[in-house]
Amino acid sequence: MNRSISRIGLPMLALAMGGLGFYHVNRESQALPPTAPPEYPARSPFVNSVAASGLVEARTENIAIGAALSGLVLEVYVPSDRVGTHVVAGQPLFRVDDRHLKAQLRVAEAQLAMAESRLAKLQQQPRPEELPPSLAKVKAAAANVASTEDQYDRAKRLVERETLAREEYVTRKWAYDAAVHELARAQADYDLLKAGAWKPDIDVAKAAVAEARSQIEQARTEIARATVVAPVDGVVLQVNVRAGERVSDRDTKALMVLGDIGTYHVRVDIDERDIARFRPGAPAKAFPRGATDHDVTMQFVRVEPYVVPKKSLTGDNTERVDTRVLQVLYAVDRADRPVYVGQQLDVFIDVSAMGTDSVSDSNAAMQRK
Question: What's the helix, strand, coil split of the chain in %, to 5?
């Protein structure tokens, strides 16, 4: 009895389990109903077009502001909480520590004052009160010459009469010669003092003044370089510097990003395979990512006639692909559609006319052959 139940029950149980497994597998393998994408991709509004990617930038391009001097940042005049502030050319943005430069300026100013005083002293020579004493020495020497000359003349006559010793005559003669030389020296000293400073000495003093002024100008230039100012009128797009941070010429990240966004430019990268189909001035439309139902009208600005390696749009300049692109700039009206600097756009450029011309040229070339 038990054997008959086992022979019938076990196969039935196995058949039931197999059916249950088949039902479960069949249920789980059913296809899910199709769902609509969150956003349909952009489609070209032109019959014949070139598709490209564009990146929004300022009209002046995105200017990466750096510091001319290395050092500690003392003040940030446009902090991060004021991003979007409009600045004019020459307006201070932030200031690097310049206290040591101001100390050097004070030293240079003191050196200039000393050099100018030395020059003025030379130019005002001789002092009026120095001439009378020197002239008095000349007159005293002349009187001494006259006295010794009289004694010498008397001694000469007495020696001829042999009434004066030869030794006394020689003594008076040398006294007269010494008085003559003393007068000549006194006269030379007076003439030198009256002539004033020597021209080469004045030239050296003037050169010292010029050098001191140059040092002051250099110090002022360095102080001016410590304050970073806006190079153009524009809007502060990003601030990456804070008071108390140290900056140097080795910084790879822009301390500030500035640009004129009165008009946006879109930098379009045209693949090198599509360059032959593109013509300057071709109309184009752009579609923001995530808003493909609204197009953005663009006006042609210029072509940058240098094909460059394509950059990855991750923001890292070291990431490149093996594709070269021609960069074309289009202008975007801010009132047409709100866009932002750095935003990616899907761009379509109309090349219909270019394609017709190319076909006609090709047919004509084949007929000539």
Answer: 45, 25, 30
Return the top range by mean pLDDT from 2-16, 33-47, 84-98, 167-181.
84-98
- Do 347 and 286 touch, CB atoms closer than 8 A? yes
Nearest-angstrom CA–CA distance, 367 and 369: 5
Q: Is the distance from CB of 261 to CB of 338 less than 8 angstroms?
A: no
Model pTM score: 0.67
Report the SS3 class of residue 256: strand
Q: In what order do the strands lie in the sheet with 227-229?
A: 227-229, 92-96, 71-76, 246-247
Q: Cα–Cα distances in Å, from 284 out to 147, 245, 293, 325, 358?
A: 113, 45, 16, 17, 19
- The DSSP result for 41-86, as a single string, is PP--SSSSEEEEEEEEEETT--EEE--SS-EEEEEESS-GGGTT-E
| Helix pair angle (99-123, 199-226), 10° resolution | 160
Query: What are the pLDDT digits (tens) for 323-359?
Result: 899 999 999 876 666 788 999 999 999 988 654 444 3
Between strands 49-58 and 264-271, the pairing is antiparallel
Place of tokens 């009434």: 163
- Of residues 323 and 85, more confidence is placed in 85
Give the burial class of 258: count Cβ atoms within 10 A of its Cβ; 0-12 exposed, 13-18 middle, 19 or more buried: buried
Decide: 286 and 346 in contact? Cβ < 8 Å. Answer: yes
Mean pLDDT of 233-241: 95
167-197 pLDDT per residue, tens: 887 888 898 889 889 988 988 888 878 778 8
List the strands of the sheet with 63-65, edge to edge. Answer: 63-65, 256-259, 234-239, 86-87
Q: Lowest mean pLDDT: which of 8-22, 139-153, 199-213?
A: 8-22
With residue 326 as reference, give the H or E element that holds it: strand 320-332
C-alpha pair distances (Å), 346 with each of 15, 267, 280, 284: 59, 11, 19, 10
* Six token digits for residue 360: 């006609």
Angle at 193 between CA 189 and CA 196, to 5 degrees: 145
How many Cα atoms sit within 13 Å of 304 on the Cβ side?
14
Residue 167 has, within 13 A of its CA and on its CB side, a CA count of 0
